[in-house]
Amino acid sequence: MASPVNHFDETDIRLETKLNWLHVASNETLTYYTLHKKRGKEAMDNMDNMDNMDILPHYQGYAVHDH
To answer: What gap in Å lies between CA 61 and CA 4, rounded to an integer?
Structure first.
């Protein structure tokens, strides 16, 4: 959270033949992964479910994505 720049992304991954999304938040020294059944905003920042990343809504630096 203290890093001035973080990268956020997701990629599809199969888990027990079902499509899931591997979400990542990373900077030059740390990488955080989480798996979610959905892609995008719901998985990245919904605080109601422990499976969700819950980093991006609180992050105050530069968020980089490969749009």
So the answer is: 5
